[in-house]
Each structure stands twice: as C-alpha cells, then as structure tokens.
From TrEMBL:
One of its GO terms (cellular component) is mitochondrion. GO terms for molecular function: acetate-CoA ligase activity; AMP binding; ATP binding. Residues 102-486 form the AMP-dependent synthetase/ligase domain. This is Acetyl-coenzyme A synthetase. The lineage of its organism: Eukaryota, Metazoa, Chordata, Craniata, Vertebrata. It comes from Sphaeramia orbicularis (orbiculate cardinalfish). GO terms for biological process: acetyl-CoA biosynthetic process from acetate; lipid metabolic process. It is an enzyme of class 6 (ligase). It catalyses: acetate + ATP + CoA = acetyl-CoA + AMP + diphosphate. The keyword Membrane does not apply.
C-alpha cells in the first residue's frame, strides 16, 4: 500500500522530443565548470553516473575547484564502510574559516554575509564579509590568548546571531572543534553534552530573546557548569542590555583583541565539530565531522539543490543548534560566498505572517524550513501569505520530517504561487548534507509532492531486505542504506567509535545504514517512510508512519498527526493515531485504528515528533518514557497520558 503518490506531478512534463533538445543544448561547463573535463559527460544524467562510477575523479575535481587549500591532498579517499574507516582528501591542509571568509573578503569585502533577522521584525542587522572576518579574528585571538588550543572542543550555547557564527568560525580558525548546543535545551541536557565533549570553554550570551520573551541563557549555563568540572571559562556576549552576574570563571566578550589572526593549517581529517543528536537509547551521540569533506559537501549541496546563485539571499530558518543550521545557515552559504539569513524568532511571532513578511523585507530567494512549521501556518490560512510580496522566492525547501501532501501542496501553491520548485530534502546529522532531493535535475523534470526523489551527486541509496540482500527492482520498500562513502559523512561518534560501527556499519555490512525506511517507486524515485524504529507491522505488512499520517492529515479537522503501532493479539500490531485537532480528548475507533485527538504532540525542539514516547504511552509503559530533555513542551506528554486513559476507559 502506498498512499502518498496519488496526486499527480505538478510540473508539466515536457514532451520527449523537447527534452532531447534540452539535454543536447545542456551546457555542462556553465552548470559545473570542473565537469567540463569529465570524459563523455555532456548531460546531467551522465554527470550523475560519472560521479558514481568515477567517484575519486569527481570529488577530486570538485575539491580542487571549490576549496582553497594551503597544501594539496594526495589521496582522494580511503574508506572502508564495513570497518567504519572514512578518510577524505588526506595529505591536504586548509582552514575552513579562510574558505568561508578571507577568500571572499579578497574579492567582495562589502558583500553582505549574514542578515541577522532578530526577534523583533524590522530590526535586522547586516554583516559584511569584511566585518564577519574581523569579528572572527578578534574572537580567535581572545580564545587563543585564553589558552584554547588546536584539538580542544568549545561548547557554544547561543541563539542564532552573528557572534555565534563568528564563534564557530573562530574555533575553525584556531583549530579548535566546536560543539553547538541548541539554546533551548535545559541545563541538564547542556551539562551532559559539555561533559561528553570534555569542553573546558563555553561561549554564551547574557540572555536570549525569542517570540518576545527573554530567556536566561547565562543562568542556564551557570547551572549546567556546576556539574561540569572540566569547564574553566565561560565567555559571555551581550545580546540584551541587561547585566548578568559574572563569576571568576566568566570572561566578557567585549575584551578588545587584534583583528589579525593567523589561521591554523588543518589536516583534512582534523575535527571541525561535534554535534549531538538523540539516539534510540537515552544517551545522545556526539557525531564528529571533519574539515575538508564536510565543507565541500555542504557547499556543493547548497549550491546545487537550491540552485543558489551569486547575489541570492538564502533563508534557512533552522536554528544553528541543528545540523541544518550548521550546513545551510552557516557553512554551505558562506563557503559559497553567499548571503545567508540567521533567524532568531518563531514562525508565529508576532503573528503567523512572520516568515512571509521577512521574505518580502529581506527579498529572500530560497526559503528552507521544516514541515512542522508549514503545517502550523497552513492552519492559519492563506491570507497570511497573500498579505506579502513573495515574488522573490525561487526555490522552497523542506527538511526534518516527511512532508505530507497537503502541506507540500500548500507550500507549493500558496507560498510559492505555483512557480517555485519545492525540494523535499532528505538527510541526517550523520550525512552532513542533503543526500536525496528533487533537485538538481533538469529544470522541468517532474517533482512529486512529498518525495525526496533523486540522489545527489556521488550518492548511491539502496534498499535492502531483512537479510541484508539488495532489493534491485523498483516499486519496493525496505531499510534505506547508502552504498558509497561521500565526503560529508560523519566519521565517528565522539569517544565511542564502537557505537558508530554498531549503529551505522554493522546492520548491513558494506553499507551505511540510515535508520530510515524508504520506498523506491516504479520510476526509481525515493520516498522516505520514516524511522524504522517507528515502523508498524500489521499482519506482516510493514507500514511507514508517514503514509498513514498523510491520509489522516487530509481530514479537515486534523492539523497534524502521529501514527504508532500497538501490540495486537492477532495482527501483531494495530494502529493508533494521535492527532492534533480542534477537538480534544475524544477517541474514535475505526476498523482497528484508534484515533486520539490531542491539543499538542510531543515534539523535539527541532520539530520532530517523538513517536517513541507515544508508543510507550500506548503500551502503558510510563516508566520507560526515556530521555525527555529534548522535548519542546514536556507538558504535552501528561495531556496525552490523561487522554489515553480516558480513551481506554471508554472502550
Ligand atoms: C537534517 C535533519 C534526521 C532524520 C532522518 C529522518 C528525518 C530528515 C527528512 C526526514 C523524511 C525528509 N528526516 N529529513 N524524513 N523526509 N525530507 O533533520 O537531521 O536532525 O539528524 O534528523 O530526520 O528520519 O533520519 P537530523
């Protein structure tokens, strides 16, 4: 059963003969200059094929062309997926901050690098490449003078702002790794991440401002570091005018430093950053990304998936505390010399027109956001979009969860006015950058709603069966693996390479296991069906949560839903669905499917629905709820528990 592909492609396919004319006139050198030297490559399909079958040649050419090296690499790749050994561009030395800043300062110092879209609409701040370099160098010197060395790991607990970006780049400049922790996390969640990363330095701000509310970030850091003996110093920047109590450990970031900071020459495989993400156990995993491969993959996907061109304003609204913020608010756009927006606010502050008012005011060309926000805004109605001029938009992106057809169509029709390709981008913290997305492809190639569709250059997605055998035919579903290493992939889990191997390399030897399920359509397009730990098995039929949610979401009273399985004597699993609706706590049973209407779903701070929590509620295992520290609104769980009990007592 596949429920999501029913709506027809929205981009009129061109006739075959016209397509042929198009591909014949395709100018490879204009599309990707370094590909002009690839033998036998004259169209996109051939380029894709070349990137797989001549992977070393492809990545070497791209790495030489797009990165600025201090000394060249001697080996393109040395990877063995089955053993968890991943190395790219060995022998090469470079500095990531030089690639993101100095080289653009040489060519266009006054170009705007960052537009800081502050919480209060209309108060944006623009930062040029010259001043971002200046800020980065002063910070780099401050860190160096205070003893931060190559190989140290600095934890950054800041909202999206230019100083946060400069802090990340200052670490990169002096060779320290950074560990950005989302500034909405609790003191305990922060402390756990500081301890695991063994950071002795933390960078924060006095207070954050979000949705009109002031958030006491420095106080949270104070509480966190009480339980972190490794922390020797906390740098404090001022986001608001309000003074905060400073201890002996604290250092004001106002200290003046020299604006020239010698960049460290880093090996390609030195660590650039750690980023923690939840695993299936309680303990978060610190995924490790390294210098050259990560940067190259972020910049290439940013350029090609979104069709980013020089002069465009790129608006990724993810927080810098997530991988999306790292790759598409910071590293990808800056390495491409682009102009990128840092969004400090929420989609509904001061009203549900915020995104679109911002698009109009900043003249945003590419907008990249999460399905959860799109579903929320859809509910408020089209007029919030129509109030504003969104005609600058060229590409719309979606990331983080499957985007249901209703939300996809609204995004395409209302936000994009039916003109902009919508790219549903599938990837993970582990992959470093986008792996599957509808673009790049021919400008008129079809895009199917809610489908990530096409692998990026050098990416080889495969589906396997339970025994790990490759599923070679189309129109099939299974665990999604990646069969070829790529430069952007995570290298290890900090302090736990064994866990890295067990999680990603051992389940299907020779392949990188993503933990997601996917369907490959008749045409060979990929559609993500959701996390495999959420998969439902009814009478031997594996159903992805995404496909059932898509149907439930079509009900007019439903804003969004989360589908989970529960144990069933006969079928193995039945289906329960929690839906956010205008009604609350009424339950209905439809042919073995239980619906429970709730006000809110348990979501992580990045907008992912925590289905594992719902499963525990339904299984009446309240003791096994596990780590809830990443939940946006823990009170949602209590409501659901109560509603579920009411539902059970009515049955
Ligand atoms: C980038 C990011 C990764 C997990 C991933 C998958 C889900 C992300 C998706 C998607 C369906 C998409 N996911 N993009 N599912 N369609 N376009 O979100 O990284 O926070 O590590 O999450 O998110 O389940 O495995 P991360």
């Amino acid at each position: 059963m596949w429920l999501r592909c029913t709506s027809k492609c929205v981009f009129a396919s061109l006739s075959r003969s016209y397509n042929n004319v198009l591909s014949r006139s395709f100018n490879i050198a204009a599309f990707m200059p370094e590909a002009a030297g690839f033998e036998g490559v004259s169209d996109r399909a051939a380029l894709q094929e070349f990137s797989l079958s001549n992977s070393d040649h492809f990545w070497a050419a791209v790495a030489r062309h797009r990165l600025t090296w201090i000394s060249p690499f001697h080996t393109v790749q040395d990877c063995d997926l089955s053993r968890g050994r991943i190395k790219w561009f060995e022998g090469g030395k470079l500095n990531v901050s030089v690639n993101c800043l100095d080289r653009h300062v040489h060519t266009c110092p006054e170009k705007v690098a960052l537009i800081w879209e502050r919480d209060e609409p209309g108060s944006e701040v623009k930062v040029t490449y010259r001043s971002l370099l200046d800020m980065t160098c002063r910070l780099g010197n401050l860190l160096r003078r205070r003893g931060v060395k190559k190989g140290d790991c600095v934890t950054i607990y800041m909202p999206p702002c230019p100083l946060a970006v400069a802090s990340m780049l200052a670490c990169a400049r002096i060779g320290a790794a950074h560990n950005v922790v989302f500034a909405g996390f609790s003191a305990e969640a922060l402390a756990e991440r500081i301890r695991d990363a063994q950071s002795s330095t933390v960078i924060t701000v006095n207070q954050g401002v979000r949705g009109g509310r002031v958030i006491e970030l420095k106080k949270t850091v104070d509480t966190a570091v009480e339980g972190c003996p490794s922390v020797k110093q906390v740098f404090v920047a001022m986001r608001t005018e309000n003074p905060v109590v400073m201890t002996d450990r604290d250092v004001s970031m106002e200290e003046l430093e020299d604006a020239v900071c010698e960049p460290a020459a880093m090996d390609s495989e030195d660590v650039l950053f750690l980023l923690y993400t939840s695993g299936s156990t309680g303990k978060p995993k610190g995924l490790v990304h390294t210098q050259a491969g990560y940067l190259l993959y972020a910049l290439l996907t940013h350029r090609y998936v979104f069709s980013y061109h020089d002069g465009d304003v790129f608006g990724c609204v993810a927080d810098i505390g997530w991988i999306t913020g790292h790759s598409y608010s910071v590293y990808g756009p800056l390495a491409n010399g682009g102009t990128t927006v840092l969004f400090e606010s929420t989609p509904v502050y001061p009203n549900p027109g915020r995104y679109w008012e911002m698009v109009q005011r900043l003249r945003i060309n590419q907008f990249y956001g999460a399905p959860t926000a799109i579903r929320l805004l859809l509910k408020y109605g089209d007029h919030w979009v129509h109030k504003y001029d969104c005609s600058t938009l060229k590409t719309l992106g979606s990331v983080g969860e499957p985007i249901n057809t209703e939300a996809w169509e609204w995004y395409h029709r209302v936000v994009g006015d039916g003109r902009c390709p919508v790219v549903d981008t599938w990837w993970q913290t582990e992959t470093g950058g986008i792996c599957i997305a509808p673009r790049p492809s021919d400008p008129d190639a079809e895009i199917v709603p809610g489908m990530a569709m096409r692998p990026f250059f050098g990416m080889k997605p495969v589906l396997v069966d339970g025994e790990g055998k490759l599923l070679t035919s189309n129109n099939t579903s299974g665990p999604l693996c990646l069969a070829q290493p790529w430069p952007g992939m995570a290298r290890t889990i900090h302090n736990n390479h064994q866990r890295f191997i067990e999680t990603y390399c051992q389940p299907y030897p020779g392949y990188f296991f993503t933990g997601d399920g996917a369907h490959r359509s008749e045409e060979g397009y990929y559609q993500i069906t959701g996390r495999l730990d959420d998969v439902i098995n009814v009478s031997g039929h594996r159903l992805g949560t995404a496909e059932i949610e898509d149907v439930v979401n079509h009900c007019p009273a439903v804003a969004e839903s989360a589908v989970i399985g529960y144990s069933h004597d006969v079928k193995g699993q039945g289906i329960r669905s929690k839906t956010v609706s205008i009604m609350s706590f009424t339950g209905t049973q439809i042919t073995g499917v239980f619906l429970q209407f709730v006000q809110r779903l348990p979501k992580t701070r990045s907008g992912k629905i925590m289905r594992r929590v719902l499963r525990k509620v339904v299984e009446q295992d309240l003791g096994g709820l596990g780590d809830l520290s990443t939940l946006d609104d823990p009170a949602a769980v209590q409501e659901i528990v109560q509603g579920h009990q009411d539902l059970c007592s009515k049955k």
